[in-house]
Amino acid sequence: MDQDKKAPSTVEPSNIDDVRNGQVLDGSGVTNHDAVFGEIRKDGPNYRSVGWIGTSFLMMKTQIGLLMRLIHSEKGVLSFPHVFNTLGIVPGVLLLCAVGGITTWSNYIVGVFKLNHRHVYGIDDAGQLIAGRIGKEFLAFTFIGHYTMTAGSAMLSLSIAFNALSDHGTCTAVFVAAAFILVFLLSSIRTLGQITWLSIVGVVSIVVAVMMITIAVAVQERPPEAPRDGHWESDYKLFGNPSFTDAVSAVSAIIFAYAGTGAFFPIVSEMRDPRHYTRALVICQTTISAIYIVVGVVVYYYVGSYVSSPALGSAGTTMKKASYGVAFAGLLVSGVLLAHVSSKYIFVRALRGSRHLTQNTMVHWFTWIGCTLGVCLTAYILASAIPVFNGIVSLSGAAFGTLQSFQPMGAMWFYDNWKRPERGWKWKCGVVWSAFVILSGTFIMIAGTYGSIVSIIDSYNADGRVAAWSCADNSGSS
C-alpha cells in the first residue's frame, strides 16, 4: 500500500530511440510500461495521446454535456432558468458558485490522486483503495449507471432536435433510433485523442447555440409562452420562496451540471502528461461556470417563469430551429463522449493485463465493439421504453451525482493525507473541508433523491400513460 503513495518517477529518455506523442518508445516500438494500459505499441491504439488543450475540451464537453438539462428541459427536469425561478437569482447564483467551487476542488483531487496512484483508471479503482472490493463495485455501478442513462438522455435530446428541425417529420421513436445509430458509430472511435476534435466542435456548437438563445430572448418582445394580450413584464425573482422538495431538486440540478467528475479519471489516464491536468481543469471550470451563470441569469431575467420546455424554444419557432441546427453537433458529441467513457471502462476492466488491450487482435476488436454496442443499446432501450425516463435520469443525477463528485474525493484526500506526520493548520483545514464535502454530499444525495422521487410520482400522475417508443412530438412544437 505504501508503494502506491510514492510520487511517480520521471522516465529519463537516455538510451531511448524515439519519443512520440509524449510516449517514450524503445527500439522495438514498445513504450515505457503504462500503469493502466500496459505496453502501448506503435501498431496499436495510442491511449496516451491527449494534450492539455484537448483535455480541457474533453472536460468541458463532459460537463457541458450535462448542460442539456438546460436544453432538454421537460416536465420534472430542471434547467438553470427553472433553478433561478425556484430559488431566485441571488440564491441561485450563490449556490451555483458554491457547487462550482466544491466540484473544482474535487476535480483537482482527481488529478492529484492519479499522480499518486498511476494504476488508477476509474473512480472504482479509487474506491477499491479506500474501501476494498465493496467500494470498487459500488462506485463502478454508480459510474456505469449514471453515464449510461445520461447517454440515453442525450439520444432523447437528439430526437428533440430532429423533431424541431423537421417539424415532427416522422415518429419520434424513429428519431431516437437514428440517434442511437449515430452515437454508437462515433463512440466506437477507440481513443479519446481521436475524439478530441469532436469535443472541440461539440463545445463550440453548444456554446454558440445557447448564446443565440440568450441574445434572442433579450431582444424579443415577449416569450412565446407568455400571455399574448396586454402589457407584459418578466416576472423574475431575486429571491424565491421554494418548498423543501423544490429547493433540493434545484440544488440537485446544479450538482448534476457539474457531475462530470467521474469521467475525469479516464480522461487524465489518456493524457500525454498528467502533470498538466490542473491547467486544463482551470480552463474547464472557469469557462463552464461563466456560461452557466450568464446563460441562466440572462434567460431567466428576460423570460421569467415562461421559459419554454425545452428551453431552446424560448425565443420562438424560427430561432428554435436555428439554435437546434447549431446545437445538433454538440448534442451528438455529448452522447458520444458519455457512451465512450462508459464503454471504455468496461473494455479496460475486461482486458486489463492482457496484450489484447493495446494490440489490434480479434479479441480486442470484438470486445471493444461489444462494449460500445452494449452500452449504447442499453441507453437506447432505457430512453425509449420508460415513459418517465427524464425523471429517472434526474433520480440518477440526485442519487449518483454527488457520488461522482463529492464523497469519494473527500475520502481520497483522507486516504492520501490522514497519516501524514505534518499536522499543521493546513492539514487541519484539509480535514475539516474534506469532512464537509463528504457530509454535504451525503445530505444532498438523500434529500435530492427524495425530491426526485416526488417529481417522478407527479410526472407519472400527469402523463404516465405515455406509451413506450412513443411517436409523439417531444420538441414542444405547437
TrEMBL record:
The organism's place on the tree of life at top rank: Eukaryota
InterPro entries: AA_transpt_TM
Gene Ontology cellular component annotations, sorted alphabetically: membrane
Molecular function per GO: L-amino acid transmembrane transporter activity
Membrane-spanning residues: 50-71, 83-110, 138-160, 172-189, 196-219, 247-268, 280-302, 322-341, 362-386, 392-415, 427-450
Keyword tRNA-binding: no
Subcellular location: Membrane
Span of domain Amino acid transporter transmembrane: 75-453
This protein's UniProt keywords: Membrane, Transmembrane, Transmembrane helix
Pfam families: Aa_trans
Membrane topology listed for this record: Multi-pass membrane protein
Location of region: Disordered: 1-27
Family that this chain belongs to: Belongs to the amino acid/polyamine transporter 2 family.
Name of the protein in question: Amino acid transporter transmembrane domain-containing protein
Organism: Clonostachys chloroleuca
